[in-house]
């Protein structure tokens, strides 16, 4: 009996030692070529070296990340299928959709937030406002006359734009586009005056003078754009523009395995060269949070996004 009990207690240890015993999939909830896909492939390459098993990226875009999340939720909880996605899946979708094929809290184990990124409010150079106070003043003189682009109802730019409208007491016209890659070009073409976009996407166009930066989210200014003030320092801390990339495994995955994935992923995020060239230089804030820290962050984030969705009136499309 004692031997049987000892063996049962050691089962998690055996599972951790045996894992992974076959190729590991990282299911990415977005199409190939975007920032999260590129990062997933870089991490997969490094994990392949660490684990001695192939780590492959499988892109499952569509339905605002729901397709990928549903596929991973229904996968075996053996640590060989991971989900890499953004805050849309766990912080925003539960407020946008009356029903989801997955439960954001019950069906997944958060492993680690890899990075946090803040978006810029950018404008066409011809807009006669270079600062947020000037933009707000201008908007009050022409209600509904200034347009901002998003990539759909409930998207990050939409929630940020509507929160700005609400807190500043202005009226901006929301113009949704069909893809994340279309918003900045729309500003460059002066189809709309404003949008919210990541630093990596915006930097080449900022340097070329095709767009200009008005403000950025977060508690601190970006070291890449130290001249651009934050919404918080301008008096609008409620205008959240952040997004995050994180790793998840299906509920029921052995804790020893999820801890191993966290530990090995964090090592990658903390590598000095990777951290500088692939994260900081591209406008990402390296995080590498523990599973417990990630769980706490998601709960707080889901609550704040719920307020933003309510204020925006966003509905699933």
Characterise the protein shown here.
By secondary structure, this protein is α/β, with parallel strands linked by helices. The protein is built from eleven helices and eleven strands. Helix content is 43%, strand content 19%. The strands form two sheets. A six-stranded mixed beta sheet has the order 2-1-3-10-4-11, with helices on both faces. A five-stranded mixed beta sheet has the order 7-6-8-5-9, sandwiched between helices. Helix 1 (2-18) runs parallel beside helix 9 (255-270), helix 4 (87-96) packs across helix 11 and helix 6 (156-168) crosses helix 11. The longest helix is centred in the C-terminal third of the chain and has 22 residues, at 291-312. The radius of gyration is 21 Å and the shape is globular. Mean pLDDT is 93; it is low at 3-8.
List the helices and strands and how they pair.
Blueprint: H1 2-18, E1 24-28, H2 35-51, E2 55-59, H3 66-73, E3 81-86, H4 87-96, E4 108-117, E5 119-123, H5 132-141, E6 147-150, H6 156-168, E7 173-176, H7 183-188, E8 194-198, H8 199-207, E9 212-216, E10 243-250, H9 255-270, H10 272-279, E11 284-286, H11 291-312
Parallel strand pairs: 1-2, 1-3, 6-7, 6-8
Antiparallel strand pairs: 3-10, 4-10, 4-11, 5-8, 5-9
Helix pairs in contact: 1-9, 4-11, 6-11
Q: Low-confidence stretches at least 5 residues in length (pLDDT < 50)? A: 3-8
Q: Give the overall shape.
A: globular
Number of domains: 2
CATH class wording of the largest domain: Alpha Beta
Q: Examine the secondary-structure arrangement and name the CATH architecture of the largest domain.
A: 3-Layer(aba) Sandwich
Mean pLDDT: 93
């Amino acid at each position: 009996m004692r031997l049987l009990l000892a063996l049962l207690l050691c089962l998690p240890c055996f599972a951790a030692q045996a894992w992974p015993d076959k190729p590991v999939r990282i299911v990415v909830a977005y199409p190939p070529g975007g920032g999260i896909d590129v990062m997933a492939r870089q991490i997969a390459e490094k994990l392949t070296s660490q684990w001695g098993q192939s780590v492959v990226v499988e892109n499952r875009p569509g339905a605002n990340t729901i397709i990928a999340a549903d596929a991973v939720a229904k996968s075996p909880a053996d640590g060989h299928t991971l989900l890499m996605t953004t805050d849309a899946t766990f912080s925003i979708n539960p407020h946008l959709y009356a029903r989801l094929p997955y439960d954001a809290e019950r069906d997944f184990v958060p492993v680690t937030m890899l990075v946090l990124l803040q978006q810029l409010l950018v404008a066409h150079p011809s807009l006669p406002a270079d600062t947020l106070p000037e933009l707000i003043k201008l908007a009050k003189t022409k209600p509904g006359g200034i347009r901002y682009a998003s990539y759909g109802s409930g998207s990050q730019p939409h929630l940020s734009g509507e929160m700005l409208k609400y807190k500043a007491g202005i009226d901006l016209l929301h113009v949704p586009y069909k893809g994340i890659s279309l918003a900045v070009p729309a500003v460059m073409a002066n189809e709309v005056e404003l949008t919210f976009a990541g630093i990596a996407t915006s930097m080449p166009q900022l340097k070329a003078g095709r767009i200009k930066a008005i403000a950025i989210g977060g508690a601190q200014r970006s070291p890449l754009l130290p001249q651009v003030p934050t919404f918080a320092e301008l008096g609008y801390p409620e205008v959240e523009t952040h997004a995050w990339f994180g790793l998840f495994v299906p509920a029921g995955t052995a804790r020893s395995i999820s801890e191993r994935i966290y530990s090995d992923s964090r090592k990658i995020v903390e590598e000095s060269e990777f951290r500088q060239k692939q994260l900081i230089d591209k406008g990402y804030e390296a995080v590498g949070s523990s599973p417990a820290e990630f769980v706490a962050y998601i709960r707080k984030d889901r609550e704040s996004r719920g307020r933003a969705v309510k204020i925006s009136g966003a509905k699933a499309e």
